[in-house]
Structures are given as structure tokens and as C-alpha cells.
Amino acid sequence: MAVICISRQFGAGGRTLGVSLAQRLGYRFADHELMDKVSKELGISDEWFAVTEREGHGEDSLVSTGTVAKILGRIRGGDQDSSGMGAKVRESLRRLIPETAALGQVVFVGRGSQFYCKDAKDLIRILLVAPVSWRENFLIEHHRLSADEARTTIKEWDKNRSAFLKKVTDRDPDDPSLYDLCLNTSHISIDRAESLIYELVQMRSSN
């Protein structure tokens, strides 16, 4: 009945790991479930939620350049007001993530879940890290980005992750003492990382 929260540097393979781990354990992977709940609660499209969450953490506003502009161009209607939406999304996540965790057998990736779930029963917190060069290569290989796109995307996401988590906690989100297991995916494969976490879950459940 574990609750697994995977925090990761962007491009370290967190989502890939989260999906495969959830399938192996027979757990829910809460990513789309959370997006759907927040989007319905706030009356926004999934695309708008994704932009607000990932690009609006710093100033609670949308920056209509680069990657963001491409996403905004696909938003239905394009008339949804972004004013203060970042704070509203964080408030929804603060409430919905613990509610989802209370049911157990769930895997979260990112979104401050390691802090929002701090009181969850059978909580397992994982941190994935990797050098920037490795993360760039991961995005190029798995998401078919060019080298320039991968470099720019990682820079943007690292900045936004830091800005978001500063609004969630005053702790350093990359402090290894906050986690049950820290893995450098440039030294260990995603498959091996999955097996290690699976073994940790089994060990915890047998105690």
C-alpha cells in the first residue's frame, strides 16, 4: 500500500521510471489523474494546466515565448485568464495530492508530491539526478529533440522547478537526506532503478 513520490531533475528519466514502476507494482500512476482533477476543478483545459503548472510557477504568469508560445497556440479558444492561476494550481495540488495518496498504491512524479505527501502512510521518496549532458542526451534519444531544443528545455524546466518548489517548501528539494533512495541515472539504468525501488517497496511491505 506504499505511496511513492519520485522527484527528479528534468531529463533524468522520472516519468519513464514512474510509468514502468507503477505497471510493475500494479499501482496507479497519478499524473493524468491529477491533471484531469485540477483542470476540472479550476475550469481550465489540460493544456492550460500544463503551461500554468510548468511555466507559471515563478511569477504566476505565462511567458508567451519559445516553448510556451507553441503550447499556447494549441489551447482551445485561447481566452482563459492566467492571472493568479499558478497559485490556484498549487493550492489544488496541495489538497488533491494527499487525497490521492490516502488511497495508497500510487506513484507520483514531481509536482512537489514529496512535500505534499509528507504525512502519508508508507511513504517512499525517491530522488533522480543526472548531469546536464546526460539529461540532454536522454531527451534527444527518448523525445526526439535536437541538441539545442534539449539544452533549452532543460534550462527552462530546471528554472521553473526551482521556482515552483520554493513556493512549496523552504527545504532544499535536492537535499538527499529528504529521500529514502537517491539515484544517479547516468550511472544506473532506468530498468535497474525500477528494480531497486521495487525491492525497497517489497522490503517495506514485509516489515
How would you portray this structure in words?
It holds the Pfam family Cytidylate_kin2. This is Cytidylate kinase. The chain is α/β, with parallel strands linked by helices and 207 residues long. The chain has one domain: Rossmann fold (3-Layer(aba) Sandwich). The protein has helices at 14-25, 31-42, 46-55, 66-72, 85-101, 113-116, 132-143, 147-168, 190-206; strands spanning 3-8, 28-29, 106-109, 123-129, 181-184. It has a 5-stranded parallel sheet with strand order 2-3-1-4-5, sandwiched between helices. Mean pLDDT is 80; it is low at 52-83.
Distance between the termini: 13 Å
Tally the beta strands.
5
- The ordered string of helix (H) and strand (E) elements is EHEHHHHEHEHHEH
Q: Let me know the CATH homologous superfamily.
A: P-loop containing nucleotide triphosphate hydrolases
Instruction: Estimate what percentage of residues fall within beta strands.
Output: 5-15%
Task: Decide which structural class fits the backbone.
Answer: alpha/beta
Tell me the CATH architecture. 3-Layer(aba) Sandwich
* CATH topology label: Rossmann fold
